[in-house]
Amino acid sequence: MSTPIAETSRTLRDVGGQILLVGAGKMGSALLDGWLSLGLDPRKLAVLEPQPSPEIAEQAGRGLRLNPDPATVQAAAVVIAVKPQAAPDAVPALAALARRAVVISIMAGRTLGFLERLLGGETAAVRSPSRTRRFRPPSAISPTGCSRRPVRSNGWRTKA
């Protein structure tokens, strides 16, 4: 059963904290458009994108923070939507921010281990690729899609 749009909209309007979107290409822009169309206040968004589209630049006039210094962003969540080949350059700058926010990656082909190496071990990270190239047996992943690695009671992953 799906959640009614009005209920989802109310939830997005009430989101606490800021969301940082890193990468606003096709996938990142689609996420951003969806969030805004469902009622998320642009003032609760920051976007890091070296070549923003005119539509994203227009949102800056409505309160969206475009290309702020990551050190100045007080995000509750960081969504990484950069191309996998750009990740080694884009992700390390987020390390300090990632220690106090949930990191969600939609990059294809980049593992949670890859993110942990670039962000540091004390990162709450979730990987949700946009598509799966091959079938993985259910024993290989948890019901949430996260890798099955030890988790401490406070939700932070332990080092393996």
Question: How is the secondary structure organized here?
Answer:
Blueprint: H1 5-13, E1 18-22, H2 26-37, E2 45-48, H3 54-60, E3 65-66, E4 75-80, H4 87-90, H5 95-98, E5 102-105, H6 112-119, E6 124-127
Parallel strand pairs: 1-2, 1-4, 2-3, 4-5, 5-6
Q: How would you describe this structure in keywords?
A:
six-stranded parallel β-sheet, Rossmann fold, alpha/beta, disordered C terminus, 6 helices, single chain, 160 residues
CATH architecture: 3-Layer(aba) Sandwich
> How many distinct beta strands?
6
Would you state the CATH class? Alpha Beta
- The helix tally amounts to 6
SSE pattern: HEHEHEEHHEHE
Distance between the first and last residues' Cα: 37 Å
Strand content: 15-25%
For the biggest sheet, the summary is: 6 strands, parallel
Fraction of residues in helices? Answer: 25-40%
Strand order of the largest sheet: 3-2-1-4-5-6
Shape: globular
Relevant CATH superfamily: NAD(P)-binding Rossmann-like Domain
The residue-averaged pLDDT reads 80
Sheet/helix structural class: alpha/beta
Q: What Rg, in angstroms, do the CA atoms define?
A: 16 Å
The CATH topology corresponds to Rossmann fold
Count of separate structural domains: 1
Spans with pLDDT under 50 lasting ≥5 residues? 135-160
Give your account of this protein's structure:
- The protein has 160 residues and is an alpha/beta fold.
- It has a single domain (5-140), classed as Rossmann fold (3-Layer(aba) Sandwich), CATH 3.40.50.720.
- 28% of the residues lie in helices and 16% in strands.
- It has helices at 5-13, 26-37, 54-60, 87-90, 95-98, 112-119, and strands at 18-22, 45-48, 65-66, 75-80, 102-105, 124-127.
- A six-stranded parallel sheet has the order 3-2-1-4-5-6, with helices on both faces.
